[in-house]
Design brief:
By secondary structure, the protein is mainly alpha-helical. It has a single domain, classed as Glycosyltransferase. The protein has 13 helices and seven strands. The strands form three sheets. A three-stranded antiparallel β-sheet has the order 1-2-3. Helix 7 packs parallel to helix 9. The chain is globular and about 55 Å long.
Length: 340
Amino acid sequence: MIDSNQYMKLVETTATELEHIMEVSLTRRAKDFVKSALGRSVRTEDPMFWPAGMLMLGLTEARMALAGQDMVKRIDETIESHVIMWRDKYASKIDFIDDSLAGTALVKMYVYTGNELYKDAADKIYEFVMNAQRDPEGAIIYNSGKGNSNIFADGIGQTVMFLSAYGRAFNKADALSLAHTQLMNFRKYGMDARTGLCYHGYCIDNKVIEKKGLLGWGRAMGWLIMGLSEYCNGNVDINMASWYRDLSGIIESYVRSDGGFSWQIQAVEGHLDTSATGMLLYGIRAGDVTALSMNIDSNGRVGNALSSCDDFGVHYQSYGHYPWGQGAALAAISSAFSKQ
């Protein structure tokens, strides 16, 4: 288990990373140029994009774990400044459904603080998500601007988390209904019947269903269980609660000997992925975070996170320090702290 000094360093470093997430060095710009030329994904100029959202989620969970302590002020100032920057410099622009992960943190911050800044920001994300393009079954299309109808576990998990939190906080039945539709569709079309694991996504084209991507990719499983967990939190739905318990049990059956999860969870002797581990432990509400604490350096930085994924089945085996690993680890560890 992580000790209190190491935990405080983790929180402080996460706050600092959120403060500087929009700053890009010349070296990073050069690398992004090369990646773009090769057709690979690069960072976007969106303060609410999911890497920032993951840092924000980790900080909101830390805020709850540290209630009454001095670090709460540091967290509040960091998140508030980030939202104000997004509002004033970027005109509160929403471009991607990935921004709904940050929206989940905004809803939680409003519930914790009552600050209308967070509700106003969450309202904008809610409007965007509710108007996002959907496939004929009502599933929110991940990148509708690319001219396809692909449904990603990423988008399902992120939007379900947000819609569930927003629906509960503001008594919005349509938000909860849309969250339910996303889960039902993914359960019907995106799961593997033999193992109970999820594919990275699926597509329905002319009534033909194609399941896409790796089976049991760690972060895809993480997105799904995080969304399902948030939906079942305080929402009476016997069928979804049953699926949550079953899926949590399946996930736990693939835990590694070190207590973490591999980048593809069936590959229990493969490479550890701290981003997937943090997401999965947070989603199944597990208390053993040893595998995460073992990968935090003396500066509070989380290592051994898998790099970004460019598309279905495109997972570069590069591991290091990334905001999605940092934020996911903090969320999981903070959740475990809250249970102590």
